[in-house]
Every structure is written in C-alpha cells, then in structure tokens.
Amino acid sequence: MLEQLDRYRGTLAGLAVGECLGAATENMQRGDIRARYGVLRDVRGPDPIRAGEIANQARCLAESLVACGEYDPEDALQRLVAWSFSSQGVLSQDVTNRALAKVATGMMWEHASSLTFWESGGKTTGIHVVGRCAPLGLMFAGNPEHNIAATYSSARLTHYDRVWSWAAVTLNLVIAALIAGNNIEESLKLIIDHLEDYDAPMPVLERLSQLEATAYIHSSTLAFNALEAAIVCLLRTESAESALVEAVNLGGASRATGAVCGALAGAAYGLSHIPDRWWQRLEDVDAFVELADRICALAESDS
C-alpha cells in the first residue's frame, strides 16, 4: 500500500514538476538548449514555482473526483470554467480556454467543443488535454473499462477531435499499468492488447507498437508526439530524474512533454524517486500530494 501511495503521489506531483521543469526550454531548439544550459537539470525561476496550466487543469479534475467521490463531468467542467476565468487560466487563449469561455455563456459543452474545433479549421493539437486527464488514470487504475470511458469523456469536454481523447486514454492506461508494478515495456504491451478490443483508431495502435528506446522522438505541439516522446524517454532511461531530464531537453513543447513524462515517471518510480530539489520548490506541492492520497483512498474503496 505504501508503494502504491508513493506512485499515486508521484503521478500528480510529477506532472506538476515536469511542466515546471520544461518551462525553461519551451519552444527552444535542441542546439539552443545546449548552448544556453548544456543540459538542463534543474527547475529555473524564482521560489516558489507555481504550477502551470496543465497541472492546474489536472488539479481541477482531481478536486472534482475527491469532492464527488466519482467522475462527475458536469462538476469537473464547472471547476475548469472557474479556473479558466481565474488569473491563471486567462493567460492562455488555447482551445481549452476558448471552449470553456463558450460554456461560461451557457452553451452546452458538446456544442462548445465542436464549435471551437471548427473555428480552428478542424486543426487542434490536444497538447494540454492529455496531461489534464491523469487523475482519472489514478482513480480508475484497477478498472480499465471505467478508465477508458471516463478519460474519453473528460477529454471531449473541451476537445472535439477524438484522436486527442484516445491520446489521453493511452496515457491513463499506461499510468494504471505502471502503478500496478509493470515496467514501461510491459505496460505498453498490456495496453496495446487491451485497446485492440476497443474502437481505438488504428494509427494509435500502429504508433504505439512501434515505440522503442531507439525511436526518433521530437516534442511538437501535437499531443501524440508529446506522449510518444515521454514514453520513449522512459524506455531509454532507468530513473525518474534521467527520464525527465531527457524529456525537457528535447525542447519544443517541453512543458507538455515534461508534464506527461513527469506523470509517467511518477507512476513508474514514485514521488520518493523524484529529486527533492525539484518538487520541494513547487508552491502547492502539498495540495497535489493530498489530492493523490485521497484519490488513492477512493480507488482502494472501490476495488
């Protein structure tokens, strides 16, 4: 139980830490990162570091799970709307915030999500939605069917494109497999076998089946690229620290890649294996740890 609790804590705190760590290399090219930092190994910025957008959206979902004792999409949505109009949420005008702004006017989320998608020319990246859904991977770690259904639903609250919903589902199934004590190679095999029984897009299964430690990776604003990069970083390293350092030094969308890799590394190794010098700088790390504890207790009571 203590090891499992450490993994729950590691997932939520790791997501927040990974996003903060990646802030210093966001939108940078690898050569520019090497020129400025050599290898970035520490969180940059003044103390304390505040959690980023992805972590705060995940926190909204985690708080909803704890308050309701289950996944309640309407409650989760209203918490996201409230966050979006806070001083943190309005900093970004990405797809998530634009969809939530429509919901705030009274529009049904289904219409808000689809309208935002079409306003974007049918082109969205899903870069934030994947990491946001991580608390559901914890809540339903022992129930793959509920994990898939709830994660898919949660992603669709703001992102109409089903590809991004399946990216979030993939992350949460990997998180669940890692929490159960499987390594990343075993976890990938388990979810590929599992997704074959569902209506997952074939490109999803094909891309997952091709991932290996030697795969070429880059951190773009497309959710699946960030997810794949984070997975490969775990495949080619042997610690939470080395996986996260590898991820954020890719540059590009390093906040999102760092967040996803942080969640995976936390699930694989636990908070006790994420360097203290990182997570102790996070202003609200205690809140993420407490939420992880309470979600772990809920998951245990449902099993």
Give the gist of this structure.
The protein is mostly helical. It has helices at 2-22, 30-37, 53-68, 73-84, 95-104, 109-119, 129-132, 134-139, 144-156, 162-179, 184-195, 202-209, 223-235, 240-248, 254-269, 276-279, 285-302.
Q: Please, could you describe this protein's structure?
A:
The protein is globular. It has helices spanning 2-22, 30-37, 53-68, 73-84, 95-104, 109-119, 129-132, 134-139, 144-156, 162-179, 184-195, 202-209, 223-235, 240-248, 254-269, 276-279, 285-302. It has 303 residues and is mainly α. The two termini are 13 Å apart. α3 (53-68) packs across α17. It has one domain (2-302): ADP-ribosylglycohydrolase fold, CATH 1.10.4080.
Question: What kind of sheet is the major sheet?
Answer: none
* Low confidence ranges: none
CATH third-level topology: ADP-ribosylglycohydrolase fold
Radius of gyration: 17 Å
Number of helices: 17
CATH homologous superfamily classification: ADP-ribosylation/Crystallin J1
Strand residue content: under 5%
Mean pLDDT: 90
Decide which structural class fits the backbone. Answer: mainly alpha
